[in-house]
Amino acid sequence: MARLQLIRSSAISSVDRSLQLVVPRVESIMSKMPEILFIVPTPLGFSVRTTREYWELIQHKHPEIVGKEAEVQQCLQQPAVIRRSTQDPTVYLFYISVPPYHLAVVVKRLDGEGFIITSYLTDQLKEGETIWPTSA
């Protein structure tokens, strides 16, 4: 019985030492991962994500969308129109009306997941195959 307790104690000590080595590595890796700002589902059956850092870059390039995170998420979840890019079949343009303009959210779908390429206000929808709403 004493031998069994010694083996258990030794095994627990070994696990504790392993955790002491692994946990700091995991924490270091996690601290370097980009912070996800949001992930939202689309009517096309895939979700779209963006990171806080990338969203800040988009806002710097297109200051007209500063503070429009909720509208961008709404555009992805409940678009008025979705068009497929004429240049790249894996790129989709989501639109909602934000009078007197349209909010465009450009998304790339890769390996079943989507991520935002850019977002901006526009007075015209880009050309492309309309895939939402569907005519069924």
Overall form:
elongated
- Structural category is alpha+beta
Ranges where pLDDT stays below 50 over 5 or more residues in a row are: none
Gyration radius, to the nearest Å?
23 Å
What can you see in these coordinates?
By secondary structure, the protein is an alpha+beta fold. Helices cover about 35% and strands about 35% of the residues. It has helices at about 1-30, 50-60, 70-75; strands at about 35-40, 45-50, 80-85, 90-100, 100-110, 115-120, 130. A 7-stranded mixed beta sheet has the order 1-2-6-5-4-3-7. A hairpin with a 2-residue loop joins strand 4 (about 90-100) and strand 5 (about 100-110). The longest helix has about 30 residues, at about 1-30. The radius of gyration is 23 Å and the shape is elongated. It starts with a helix and ends with a strand.
In a few lines, what is going on in this structure?
37% of the residues lie in helices and 35% in strands.
Task: Provide the fold topology.
Elements: H1 2-32, E1 36-41, E2 47-51, H2 52-61, H3 69-77, E3 81-84, E4 91-98, E5 101-110, E6 113-122, E7 129-132
Parallel strand pairs: 2-6
Antiparallel strand pairs: 1-2, 3-4, 3-7, 4-5, 5-6
Highlighted features:
single chain, 136 residues, alpha+beta, seven-stranded mixed beta sheet, 3 helices, 35% strand, elongated
